[in-house]
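Bumping with the actual sequence this time:
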Amino acid sequence: MTQQGPHPSSHFTLYSRSYCHLCEDMLAALRAFMARSGLPWHVDVVDVDADPQLTDMFDELVPVLYAGVARLDGAEQSAGAAGEAAEAGPTGQEICHYFLDEAALQRYLAQHHG
């Protein structure tokens, strides 16, 4: 959902799944919060069950709200002397999971919108 054109610091990703009442509740709370804020924003809702890697990462933690664009960082990185690949994960900053933490979201917005 786009509101007044997205700004990089007001772009969110909600990791979710179908038939998840907590996921629906968090999305509704995010929409209400951002409407009250008056800031431009955008949210991508990503179904973790559509990607086995996301299912492994989030499983029962959904919903999880991240600041930033939905993208997995799958680049291999040196993870020590053995040189194993670092585990891929979502890019961005986790704001909260299970329920919308309005205080955490407000702190994030204050840092990025002054």
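The tokens above came from a reply further down the thread. DSSP finds three helices and seven strands in the chain.
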